[in-house]
Amino acid sequence: MTYPDYSARAELYLGRDQPSAAAQGPRTFSTAAKALRFALEEAAPVSLHGAWLQVGTARFSGSELAWLYHSPDYPLPRKQPRRGLQWLREARTMNKEFEMQKFNYDALAELYPSRRYAKSQQTQYRRFDKAAEAIRYVVEELPVKWLAGSHLEVNEQRFEGAAIRELYDAADYPLSRSRIAA
C-alpha cells in the first residue's frame, strides 16, 4: 500500500454508502492526518461505510482509512487509546489484503442479503460457484437499494455494498457486463 502525504491538503467524503458520500460532498481538511483523525475519532461509524479520503490524485477508502490511521507513520497523537494489540492484528490483516495482487473471481462466494430484504424470495442466502457470477447477480439483478447491508464472502473476506460494485467495475472482471448497471 502506498501512503499519502499526511501533511497534504485532503478531502474526506462521508456517507452510509459511496453514492450518498458523493452526494453530500467533501469536507476539506488542511492535512490528511487531520482528516483521518476526524473520520476515525469523531465521525459516526455508519458514515464510514461509504467513506473515502482524496489526497491529491490518490484515493483511500474503506478499511484503508483505519490502516492509515493506525500506521506507525501517522504523525498526530491519537485521541482514542489503542485497544491493546487488536489494532496491530487489524493492521496486519489489512496489509495482507493490500499485498494481494488480484481478487480471485473464480473462488466460491456466499451472498448474505440485507436483513431488511432477506424475507423476499429473490434475496435469500445464496451460494455461487464463482465470485464473478455472484457479483454480476448482485449488481445486475438486485435493486440498488438492496445493496446496502448485503455482503458477499469470498475466501473468508467480506465485501459490502460499494466494494461489490468496485469488483464489478474493475478492469479484470472476467464476465461480460450484460447491461449497464445503476
What count of structural domains?
A: 2
Radius of gyration: 17 Å
Helix and strand composition category: alpha+beta
Name the beta content range. 15-25%
Assembly context of the chains: single chain
Gap between N and C termini: 30 Å
Write the H/E string, N to C.
EHEHEEHHEEHEEH
Q: Low-confidence stretches at least 5 residues in length (pLDDT < 50)?
A: 81-85, 95-101
Number of helices: 6
Shape: elongated
Q: Strands across the major sheet, in which order? A: 2-1-3-4
Proportion of helical residues: 25-40%
Main sheet attributes: strand count, strand direction, barrel closure: 4 strands, antiparallel
User: In total, how many beta strands?
Assistant: 8
Q: What is this entry, summarized?
A:
The protein is of the alpha+beta class. It is built from 6 helices and 8 strands; from the N terminus they run βαβαββααββαββα.
What does this structure look like?
The protein is an alpha+beta fold and 182 residues long. The chain has two domains: 90 residues, no CATH class; 61 residues, no CATH class. Helix content is 33%, strand content 16%. The strands form two sheets. It has a four-stranded antiparallel β-sheet. Strands 6-5-7-8 form a four-stranded antiparallel β-sheet. The chain is elongated. About 7% of the residues have low confidence.
